[in-house]
Amino acid sequence: MGKIKLIILREYLTRVRKKSFVIMTILGPLLMAALFVVPVFLAQLEGDTKTIAIVDETGLFAPKFKDSEKLHFEILNEDPESIKLHLTDRGFYALLHIPITELSVPNTAKLYANGQPNIIVTGYVRETMRKEIESLKLSASGIDPEILRSIKSTVNLLTIRVDEGGNEQNSSTELSMVVGYIGGILIYFFIFMYGAQVMRGVIEEKTNRIVEVIVSSVKPFQLMMGKIIGVAMVGLTQFVLWVVFTIIIVTSVLSVFSADINAFRSSQLQVEKDPIIMYDSGGETIQPQNQNMENPEQINEAVVAIFDQINSIAFQLILPLFLFYFIGGYLLYGALFAAIGSAVDNETDTQQFMLPITVPLILSIMVAQFIIINPEGPLAFWLSIIPLTSPVVMMVRLPFGVHWVDITLSITLMIAGFLFATWLAGRIYRTGILMYGKKPSYKELWKWLRYRS
Amino acid sequence: MQPALEAQHIIKDFANHRALDDVSLSVPEQQIFGLLGPNGAGKTTLIRIINQITAPDSGEILFNGRPLRSDDVSQIGYLPEERGLYKKMKVGEQAMYLAQLKGLSANEAKQRLKSWFEKFDIMNWWNRKVEELSKGMQQKVQFIVTVVHEPKLMIFDEPFSGFDPINVNLLKDHILDLKNNGATIIFSTHNMASVEELCDNIALIHRSKTILQGSVDGLKKQFKPDNFEIVYSNGKSDLRQLLGEQFMVLEESKKEHETIARIHLEPGSDANQLIAKLLPHVNIHAFREILPSMNDIFISQVNKNERSNG
Questions:
Q1: What is the reported pLDDT for A286?
Q2: How many CA atoms lie less than 13 Å away from A268 in the CB half-sphere?
Q3: CB proximity B220 to A under 8 Å
Q4: Could B83 and A447 be called an inter-chain contact, meaning their C-beta atoms sit closer than 8 Å?
Q5: Minimal CB count within 10 Å: which of A18, A72, A292, B23?
Q6: ipTM for this model
Q7: CATH code assigned at B188
Q8: Which residues lie closer than 8 Å to A133 by C-beta, 6 or more apart?
Q9: Which of A205, A217, A451 sits opposite B101 (nearest CB)?
């Protein structure tokens, strides 16, 4: 045991001290944090209010343009030709010219700007006009826009899981999907990244020719397991550091910007409150009954509903199982990767042996979308108990609720699969590490399996 | 005296061939034992079996008279022919790691390594990365790591490859020192000159079998061709006529003041008779028996075995 500890320590320390590890550990959270922070920062850059001149010859649209945090509208009664030549001088970002047309409902307008006008501006102008045109057309057809608005409705479908004991629990398909996907993808990446590191480590020892020195001191199996465990700890270290750093960076950056963010949020809220936009999105995101979202009671209710859904996901079950499949899946694949590394002399030779190992892994991430559609189906069942695919597939299934029999079966097979994989890998490994020269075939690997140890 | 190591009827089969076929040998304690044989004869397989890296299909290895145990690895030091170090690791750190894998505590390892590093005058390499070292420098580190845990049995496979002549001598001295301090050494090489210089006993493996075993002196006597070399002067008469049937002159070369001749003794005659015949006629400056070199024995025995196997 003492020797395995030495090996684990060496594998761990040499990797953690590498520049690439330090760089990745710092860069990873920065990139992650950037995902959160950059949009806020960019919104910050757009800080100045843009003034847009409007020359509305029809007189129908101008009053509909409402000032917001970012946009200010000035209604003018001048010749558009003279304004458009002096946009910058007069402090206008753009000029909107709505000419009179022959149509009863006009639908043409021109937006002049000194550069390509920003998408927020064009989008806002287009939307505002479209809504006004629609409501004009509605009145022309004799339909009251109020009636149309009251017709639009959303169905609130509350999904409730009933277990055998008759206990009911709110559930959320969307949230389950997200949690399942995230868990599955994390496991997938972890296995691939660090499994490949194990393989590279084995090849390195082989090409360095140090392996024979080491196996004269320790059993090849100890060397293999030491490496797999050492690399796993590197991975876990990096994972934990990423999470911690990301949280630190995001919270610290956000606290610096917090005042601005509040402003940003309120401006967004303002846009949402704009009745015209409300009208447009009423069917989709904002439900008609939520129009008075400011009402504190209703906000409370919505928050409770979200928490209810989050609570409906059995995290007390998912988290330990996530850890189990995270580590179990890695150990199983890590052993197989180590066996591949031992069988070849260099990384380019690994291709033919990599295929049978990467196929189940890639397959499990590819079928995840079908598993989500039918988390109780036969495909989901089988793939979530077969050890090669179960780490990813079971993670995807879990948030939807999985029967304990399936879970027990999957865990048992996972442990059995891990034991079998390490046994198999150990036998290939102890022969492979001392074989140089020609690339072995599968037939030869089979022979290696049967050598006496 | 009980042999330090004994191999008894070792058989090892690989996928397509038998690497060791009923190989038995006995390595006496506190001696240097040469394990010789052409490439592919099975030497490395045997060494790996002694190091418990692979297991024999049948047969047994006895270490100090009892079957080899897995914790005996701390009593054995092995310098493989294919050897290397972690390139990115620092020399000292790596030596510490390997020494501890052999069972030394961190303190012991550090202390002993430091004294070895000083002996080789390489203390200033301690914090350098292995990749900055030349091949010969790396070999020194590897040698130290092999012996630092003071094993009772040391196995050196081609220890001198990659060394310059000065360092070869340095290493030879250290190997002899180790022997004098009580270690038993198995030494595998193709360099027959160093075998004659260092080895007390040898075993010759060819085609997976031991074809020859014994002490270097004994084997030389056993395979001596009964040839003698004499250096003489004032030779007036022809040597061939003088010596007659019993002695065959193989070669004669005349220098300015003396002649060197090589003479083969036919069965039934001895060196004293030869001297008696020569004494009245020539002035003898030197007379010695020509013993075969290990190189000669190696080649002749391997060829003989090759022929008898068709």
A1: 39
A2: 9
A3: no
A4: no
A5: A292
A6: 0.84
A7: 3.40.50.300
A8: A105, A106, A107
A9: A217
Which of helix, strand or coil describes residue A444? helix
Residue A98's H or E segment, with its range, is strand A94-98
Do A183 and A395 contact (CB within 8 A), yes or no? yes
CB contact, 8 Å: B307 with chain A?
no
Count how many Cα atoms sit within 13 Å of the Cα of residue A295 in the half-sphere of its side chain.
9
Dihedral sign computed on CA atoms, order A295, A298, A304, A309: negative
Domain hosting B47: range is 5-221
Inter-chain touch B98–A213, beta carbons under 8 Å: yes
pLDDT digits (tens, 9 = 90+) for A158-211: 677 676 666 666 666 777 788 888 888 889 988 999 999 999 999 999 988 899
B175 lies in the same domain as B271? no
Q: pTM of the full predicted structure?
A: 0.75
- pLDDT at site A274: 44
The number of domains in chain B is 2
Instruction: Give the pLDDT band (50/70/90) at residue B27.
Output: very high
What is A195-219 written as a DSSP string?
HHHHHHHHHHHHHHT-HHHHHTTS-
Kindly list the structural domains of chain A, giving each domain's residue range(s) and its CATH number in brackets, ordered by start.
Answer: 48-150 (3.40.190.10), 173-259+312-450 (no CATH), 260-307 (no CATH)
Could you tell me if A92 and A83 are in contact, meaning their C-beta atoms sit under 8 angstroms apart?
yes
Strand order in the sheet with B58-63: B18-27, B5-13, B58-63, B66-67
Whether residue B234 sits in one domain with residue B217:
no
